[in-house]
Amino acid sequence: MKTAKALILALALPCAALAAERNDLQSCYTRSGLTELKPASSGRELVVIIDQTIPMPEDLQRNSWGQIDRFVKAGDRVKLYTFSAFLPGEYLRLAYAGELDMPLEGEVRDDVNMRKLRSLDLCLSTQKKAFQSGFGQQFVKGLRDARQDIPKSEIMNSLHKVGEDMQREQGVHERVVLLISDMLEHSEYTSFYAANQIKQLNVSKELQLAQSKGLFADLQGSRVYVSGAGLVTDSVKHAYRSGKTMDALNSFWSQYLSASNATLSGFGTPSLSTDLR
Question: Taking the model in full, what pTM does it have?
């Protein structure tokens, strides 16, 4: 009976409240009985977004994992979203949300019970590996579940919804987004394809359309890095993409992100050659 009441109460809570409490990586301070001593987070957040409408080559998958692993430090929050199109069973999902702990430093350590302190230090020393395992499992699944037979790709709408999640968060003052996608919007709003091939974008027209449809996001000042831009599936004719075509694609997303309170800091076509910063 108590369990049933607790479940009903949880379902009655606002979605934002539940999302704010989610942490797939258990805090070492909670595990060691030192919750009240937990330091504030670093204020940094990495948001990884996987577009599941385009399977990524193995080398791009490995490159993206290396970027993530090098970037994430103690005290950081990390989220993983996957998206494709709004079809039955296919929608934007928050696959992982976790926060790594900051170490306990200074005079506070001197007043902590030695047994609890040893437990805390041991947990902190292995927490990065626990993150790599938990996040890594969902990351690999998100990439491996990508399919090229999904007829639509809702990139802008997905970014809009991720931005709504960001607006509800507190305690984050620095955000980095890693978007693993071909960046080829193909939705009810617009399509970057014509005659089954990548079209030469009219950047100004596409931006006006995005604005009229309310597709700009609020990404809270994020620095955005893209891996996989311009990749095409087997069904697309003329796999060659000219520099002119890719420049227009880069220009569109740079301006779209600027209008969405973000900065395009890296645009991998397809491989991202700069580290996340």
Answer: 0.89
